[in-house]
Amino acid sequence: MLTDLNGLHHVTSVAGAPRAVDRFWREVMGLRRVKTTVNFDNPEVYHLYFGDRIGTPGTVMTHFPFPNARRGAQGTGETGQIAFSIPPGSADDWAAHLAAHDVPVTREALFGETRLALTGPDGERLVLVEAEDDRKPWDGLPEAMAIRGLHSVSLRVADRDEMLPLLHFMGFAETGREGAVTRLADETGGPAHIVEIEHRPDLSPAREGAGSVHHVAFRARDRDSQARIRDALTEAGHRVTDVRDRDYFWAIYFRTPGGILFEVATDEPGFTRDEPAEALGEELRLPSQHAHLRGDLERMLQPLD
């Protein structure tokens, strides 16, 4: 069993129009844009990061916005929903806030929690969960209601039993079942340390597009921890990529038995490695291999507020 993982690091989704995505996560969800950069493999596409003041691991939502991307089709083999923790008692304030932004919301209950379900600008399923969470939020919304960070992710699969052994190996233990949902948590057990399996053998496989989660990233404290995780996953028979420098963290990737892409990312070096905390996200930052494209990219990329 892995002992070096420390919960969720970030979640990355495919998106549509960059400006719509940016405005939704800053103005509606109240997160800070902590990094404005480009996709390593396709520099003509933004990579936008949103989170708390400095993009602390476990608070970060990121997007690859393709302006002309078609909507994804929901189904199995994907991350079905992303949940964020909000303070206990803040659901009513959130419902009013979302209504003011013309975002429909549905109240639901799962595992005894108060939850609000909504959809993002590209149809992605998001959930706000009232939970005890002492992480300090960004000041985009009043502190009494502001998002604290990731709460959990829900993996929608056709075969629950083929996913459970991997999550157990990753240090997650089952804490409950309700309907089609199985909840697992690591030893910490709090927000950003929860993974759920949504068992939906009745659905067709998902088709990736705008609104689809590209990958879910888990935390490794540093590169030594990441190396131990990679060795253990490889020894267990998983096909893991080499270590990749993503400027703000080091990353490895592998596919789960259900077809979902997992990443293990380091906490180091963080988003302040190339700009001060007070100016995070304000300027376009480019990976060194794409620095020579700055003039072309600044003309090509849709301006953000």
Automatic annotation (TrEMBL):
Residues of the VOC domain: 7-131, 149-267
Keywords: Dioxygenase, Oxidoreductase
Keyword check for Oxidoreductase: yes
UniProt-listed Pfam families: Glyoxalase (PF00903)
A GO molecular-function annotation: dioxygenase activity
Name the UniProt record assigns to this protein: Ring-cleaving dioxygenase
Taxonomic source organism: Rhodosalinus halophilus
